[in-house]
């Protein structure tokens, strides 16, 4: 079963809507973004969640002390890194790490080798100049084949209910990650959340067989 992460949650009401829709994981953004939350906001969201929903903090080139401090304060389960963080940096983080690779050509995936024994998985997102994620852009999914077998792959970048089936069939990911694709006018939309989860659940079994 392909797992589902909804990212960029900014309040406990949208977080609960994500859980009720069937998301396995929710993400809070601590980097510069229109979806950025404070540690206090994230803590309130996380404390409102029922058990067995994992929580992810999204960071971009944060200092080690600060990232570990926020992770402890909010009790985050995993940390998702979208910047230029090195393997050595990742080793010093006190929570499991998912490293983002921004993809525009197949060779961009070569950098995954250096992190293979360090991180829990790789999130593959579209490369957009000056952006760290959440852009709503896709990338050529055929490039994902180069990363298969290296570590669990989380597919992100422009996913929506109307294209996630094709994305899963083409990439066979461990999980999918969506933010803008479940929004309407910049706000998380419960109906889009439900539709996205339904599309993923309907194709996951067949895509993995």
From TrEMBL:
EC number(s) recorded for this UniProt protein: 5.3.1.24
Domain annotation N-(5'phosphoribosyl) anthranilate isomerase (PRAI): ranges: 5-198
Reactions catalysed: N-(5-phospho-beta-D-ribosyl)anthranilate = 1-(2-carboxyphenylamino)-1-deoxy-D-ribulose 5-phosphate
Sample GO molecular function, one term: phosphoribosylanthranilate isomerase activity
Top EC class, one word: isomerase
CDD domains hit by this protein: PRAI
UniProt pathway: Amino-acid biosynthesis; L-tryptophan biosynthesis; L-tryptophan from chorismate: step 3/5
Annotated keywords: Amino-acid biosynthesis, Aromatic amino acid biosynthesis, Isomerase, Tryptophan biosynthesis
Source domain of life: Bacteria
InterPro entries in alphabetical order: Aldolase_TIM, PRAI_dom, RibuloseP-bd_barrel, TrpF_fam
Family to which this protein belongs: Belongs to the TrpF family.
Protein name: N-(5'-phosphoribosyl)anthranilate isomerase
Gene that encodes the chain: trpF
């Amino acid at each position: 079963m392909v797992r589902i992460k909804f990212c960029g949650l900014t309040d406990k009401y949208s977080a609960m809507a994500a859980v009720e829709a069937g998301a396995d994981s929710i993400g809070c953004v601590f980097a510069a973004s229109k979806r950025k939350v404070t540690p206090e906001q994230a803590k309130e969201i996380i404390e409102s969640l029922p058990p067995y929903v994992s929580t992810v903090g999204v960071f971009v080139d944060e200092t080690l002390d600060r990232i570990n401090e926020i992770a402890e304060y909010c009790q985050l389960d995993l940390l998702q890194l979208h910047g230029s963080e090195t393997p050595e940096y990742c080793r010093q983080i006190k929570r499991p790490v998912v490293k983002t690779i921004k993809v525009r050509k197949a060779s961009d995936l070569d950098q995954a080798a250096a992190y293979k024994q360090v991180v829990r998985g790789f999130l593959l997102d579209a490369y957009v100049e000056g952006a760290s994620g959440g852009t709503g852009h896709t990338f050529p999914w055929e490039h994902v084949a180069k990363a298969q077998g290296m570590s669990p792959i989380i597919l992100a970048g422009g996913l929506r209910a109307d294209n996630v089936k094709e994305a899963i069939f083409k990439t066979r990911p461990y999980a999918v990650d969506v933010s803008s694709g479940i929004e309407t006018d910049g706000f998380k939309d419960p109906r889009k959340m439900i539709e996205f989860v339904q599309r993923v659940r309907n194709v996951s079994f067949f895509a993995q067989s």
